[in-house]
Write a structure and sequence with these properties.
The complex is a heterodimer of chains A (331) and B (279).
Chain A: E1 2-13, E2 16-27, E3 31-35, H1 42-50, E4 57-62, E5 65-66, E6 77-80, H2 92-103, H3 107-120, H4 136-148, E7 154-158, H5 166-183, E8 186-191, H6 194-200, E9 203-208, E10 211-216, H7 218-223, H8 228-233, E11 240-243, E12 254-257, E13 262-264, E14 270-279, E15 283-290, E16 293-300, E17 310-315, E18 320-323
Parallel strand pairs in A: 3-8, 3-9, 6-7, 7-8
Antiparallel strand pairs in A: 1-2, 1-4, 4-5, 9-10, 11-12, 12-18, 13-17, 14-15, 14-17, 15-16
Helix pairs in contact in A: 2-3, 2-4, 3-4
Chain B: H1 3-6, H2 8-36, H3 40-45, H4 59-66, H5 70-101, H6 107-115, H7 126-136, H8 142-166, H9 170-178, H10 183-194, H11 196-212, H12 215-220, H13 229-233, H14 244-271
Classes of the chains: A alpha+beta (331), B mainly alpha (279).
Chain lengths: 331, 279
């Protein structure tokens, strides 16, 4: 069964089209990540699914049922917001139980579910605290707990990690991945961070300017991007692009090589001047100028390369991509 | 900590300025209160002296108690002020919520229209208001005053509150919607507590002019049973003779309830600054 089906969804604010003809399916138990640069409409799409915005045209089906006009609380969804959005005047326990009370669940059920969720998220010591007395990470867990207790068919996450610092972000990312395994629920996760998308997703939906650019598993998108945008968006550091004519090819095509597919070679075809070197210990990122195109090479291990040095790179021919002038993938 | 704030010299200067201002502001109140406890002769001989055994007198308070029904005036003023304030805050907040939260055609125009009242003094419409009150039979009722004061307070209330409500996080309201709260619950339980400092500001701004107003009570409700405190005190001020003992005593008593209301609201003001729900 499908947890969510979007059919020809359009959304415009006045004359501005924010979502254009979106078709997406989310299977039961699947973890789907919407990723794209800011302003691409991914948050709006999530709000449309949640019912916080109405679609201009098209169909939103959750669990097979048409939900276009159903209010958010009746859609069987739960949402975790970027700013946590905890109720400031309620303590953690009441924050988590409010929605269940609104649904008219019995006290016993509410208590059971809150206990279960708070155990899962290690929130038991904080149940009687107020949001203002919690740290950022704890607040985030309460926000997730508030979603879990409702036992929804579909979880919606709106950039839940972007307010956390780097270390906490990684931990919470793992927690969310664990949670997905434990709960076996369908989840939709919106982010602009490609690392989060790659690490969490079963399926990634890449959006740009309100359109779906490509849908697929992380490795599918990484190895087989449909166009230059997807190729450049996924992977860090991002893919190098330069005119193929620089390497003696005829025609108006753009060539793409991932930084990790470049390696130093004394008689390589790419001649470049190093402008900057990042020593990360495990990797060395070499940023160099090839005529007036900046390229980045990610070399494994530690290499002694200095800024200003002239180097030559080589690459594996079957690990290159070619795009036409519109950005469409050729080979 | 801020360096300027921890410097003792700066702290002393700051407190000095504040204390000086407090003294200046409280001086008239102080003079009114000490003189209300003195004999008429002592008031004029040494206006700044504290009442002593010789000059102490309660004659002013006795006159006030005897003449007219002062407790009734008191009660009228209190009812009018509290009910008007409640209406201003309730309706003002509701209008502000609608303006800031919902997108509809003419939203901006509606906001401008509601704020227009700030620029036009309500007293310009006194004659029309009086005619209206006569036609509806509301003359000499407290409702006449309550309605006028509500109308008078609403524009500023809507203006200030809608500005504050725009700052309440959308995520919080949406979280409420996802959790199944009705728009009313979102308004009363989530948004109102967060704009409490603004509500207190609006309340204080509106309270003083209403309590002190002489114009509308004199025109719309001059009857004995609907007189407000300010209007009631006027009986002691004559064209040729003024009973200063009584005037000062009446004024001293009139200060009290405003003071109490102010203390309540200012505490709300401080308590309202509860952050931390939304980062």
């Amino acid at each position: 069964m499908t947890a969510l089906t979007l059919t020809n969804v359009n959304k415009s604010f006045g004359t501005v089209e924010v979502l254009k003809d979106i078709n997406i399916e989310v299977e039961d138990g699947e973890f789907v990540v919407f990723v794209g640069p800011s302003g691409c409409g991914k948050s709006t799409l999530l709000r449309v699914i949640a019912g916080l915005e109405d679609v201009t045209s098209g169909e939103v089906r959750i669990g097979g049922e048409l939900m276009n006009l159903t209010p958010p609380s009746k859609r069987g969804i739960a949402m975790v917001f970027q700013s946590y959005a905890l109720y400031p005047h309620l303590n953690v326990r009441k924050n988590m139980s409010l929605a269940l009370k609104q649904e008219g669940q019995s006290k016993q059920v509410i208590e059971e579910r809150v206990a279960k969720a708070s155990k899962m998220l290690n929130l038991e010591p904080y149940l009687d605290r107020y949001p203002s007395e919690l740290s950022g990470g704890q607040r985030q867990r309460v926000a997730i707990g508030r979603a879990i207790v409702r036992e929804p068919k579909l979880f919606l996450f709106d950039e839940p990690l972007s307010n956390l610092d780097a270390a906490l972000r990684m931990n919470t990312r793992l927690e969310i991945a664990n949670l997905h395994q434990q709960l076996d629920a369908s989840m939709i996760y919106v982010t602009h961070d490609q690392t989060e998308a790659m690490t969490l997703a079963d399926k990634i939906v890449v959006l740009r300017d309100g359109r779906v650019e490509q849908v697929g598993s992380p490795m599918e998108l990484y190895n087989n991007p449909a166009n230059q945008f997807v190729a450049g968006f996924l992977g860090a550091p991002s893919m190098n692009f330069f005119p193929a004519s620089l390497l003696g090819d005829s025609g108006d095509t753009t060539m793409g090589v991932r930084p990790e597919d470049l390696f130093l070679s004394d008689d390589g075809p790419i001649a470049a001047n190093v402008t900057h070197v990042e020593h990360l210990g495990g990797d060395t990122n070499v940023i160099a100028m090839m005529q007036d195109h900046q390229i980045t090479a990610r070399l494994f291990g530690q290499h002694q390369v200095d800024a200003g040095q002239a180097v030559r790179f080589d690459y594996t021919p079957d690990r290159t991509y070619r795009f036409d002038s519109q950005g469409t993938r050729l080979s | 900590m801020n360096k300027a704030r921890s410097n003792p010299l700066n702290t002393a200067a700051m407190h000095g300025a504040l204390i000086l201002y407090t003294l200046i502001a409280l001086f008239p109140v102080f003079v009114i209160i000490i003189n209300s406890f003195k004999t008429r002769r002592a008031i004029f001989r040494e206006p700044l002296a504290l009442p002593d055994a010789e000059s102490f007198s309660l004659i002013g308070y006795q006159t006030v108690m005897k003449q007219g029904d002062f407790f009734l005036y008191f009660q009228n003023s209190l009812i009018v002020t509290v009910v008007s304030l409640a209406f201003v805050l309730l309706f003002g907040a509701m209008a502000a919520f609608a303006l800031s939260e919902y997108k509809f055609k003419g939203n901006t125009l509606m906001g401008l229209y509601l704020a227009l009242g700030i620029m036009i003094p309500i007293r310009i419409g006194t004659v029309a208001i009086l005619e209206m009150m006569v036609a509806t039979g509301l003359v000499n009722t407290l409702w006449a005053l309550i309605l006028v004061y509500t109308a008078q307070g609403l524009p500023l209330a809507v203006f200030i509150l809608s500005e504050f409500m725009r700052q309440v996080s959308d995520d919080l309201k949406n979280a409420g919607r996802v959790d199944g709260l009705s728009e009313y619950t979102i308004f009363f339980r989530l948004v109102l507590p967060l704009v409490r400092p603004a509500m207190a500001t609006v309340a204080v701004f509106n309270m003083i002019p209403i309590w002190n107003d002489l114009w509308f009570p004199l025109i719309l409700a001059p009857a004995e049973e609907t007189k407000t405190l300010t209007l009631g005190s006027q009986v002691f001020i004559g064209q040729f003779v003024t009973d200063w003992n009584a005037v000062l005593s009446a004024l001293s008593m009139a200060i009290l309830p405003v003071l109490v209301l102010y203390v309540i609201f200012s505490r709300q003001l401080i308590r309202g600054i509860t952050s931390g729900a939304v980062k």
